[in-house]
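#struct-help
A.M.: can someone run this one for me? Single chain, 456 residues.
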Amino acid sequence: MTPADSRTLLDDAARTYELDRKHVFHSWAAQAEITPMVITRAEGSYVWDGAGNRLLDFSSQLVNTNIGHQHPDVVEAIVAQARTLATVAPQHANDRRSEAARLISEHTPGDLDRIFFTNGGADANEHAVRMARLSTGRPKVLTRYRSYHGGTQTAINLTGDPRRWPNDNGDAGVVHFFGPYLYRSHFHATSESEECERALAHLEQVIELEGPQTVAAVLLESIPGTAGIMLPPPGYLAGVRELCDRYGIVLILDEVMTGFGRAGSWFVASDEGVVPDLLTFAKGVNSGYVPLGGVAIGSRIADHFAHRPYPGGLTYSGHPLACAAAVAAITVMERDGIVDHARRIGDDVLGPGLAELAARHPIVGEVRGRGVFWALELVADQDSREPVAPTGGSSPVMAQAVRLCKERGLLPFTNSHRIHLVPPCTVSADEAREGLRVIDEVLGRLDDLPTTSTGA
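D.P.: on it. Structure tokens below:
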């Protein structure tokens, strides 16, 4: 790059930042207190900032670029579709939507072979809940604390993390319960089997105390993502399925973040041998190249609406550009074995590497994950397990972690007191090792920082 090119790059980035700060209203932020990083381009596992620095993307942006950035097959599919049919009303059939629905249904478990397309994960969960309420005639939905289901009005009330609090007016018909989380067990469990048994007993008690005849659905992330990547103990999802069957409750599994390779499988539900009544997806279905989400619908719900209208829809449901991207992305994932690759990266590189870091750094309380879906829980003290930042908040330690990662060429994903390691499913073994090397250096610096009590 010539000096003139560098000056142009910096000038363009400065203009981008100026216009952003003048006109763009950002999500989840106090507008006057943020300094958003300018990203100018991306490729594979990397992004470039406004100063021309290359960063290894261990965030996958919002844990959605499963197939990596700028995959040529997906980009070309979008371009080709734009030349043929750029948009169409959802009441008309179009070939990309039909093919995307077929490909998705080939990977969903059981009889989930009808696809209702949405614009993303939040409205997928909104519509799944609407379907459950309409088909059962019941008002309540049970979701776990430490969960995230989206930012729209119903979805944010379904959410269990603190982002719900300013939006929760208490009349959304949502009841929260404690899910399994052995490291910070609410049930005084000492093993995964105890945690599973006691968490299921707790959920059943909540159902009984709320009145089973009032509960339309239990909605769960198959693996809670933003809330901490807590893998369910063996048998938990199957146990929830059995409780739902016993009480006539619809089971909705949210695989918006875990689906399409992220956790080393097409869907976690399939690995667990569980078939929900409804399964929501988004993100990895086309790596976010064009907004797309959806609800995979089983026969119980599909039959209810066979001869009565479903009262819901979206202008851009099954948008042809989004579906063309999904068809290309799923085809590439099948052809190139990307889901198996993500599992091997977890088994062979990230899992063992993170275990070594945890053994070496006293600030690490626990490592959890599978595939390319991992979390490091950072603590002020390993014995007390006191987190270095409050739930839903940050701290100087976490701010320092982000700064140190970026200085070393790594774009991290952090939430509360955790660093999440969530690179694209296509990340190479060498790139994964490079990310671990940076995290190792950063943890070494954090080990020496003073930490203070922040609360769980």
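A.M.: thanks! The mean pLDDT is 96.
D.P.: also worth noting: The CA atoms of residues 9 and 50 lie 7 Å apart.
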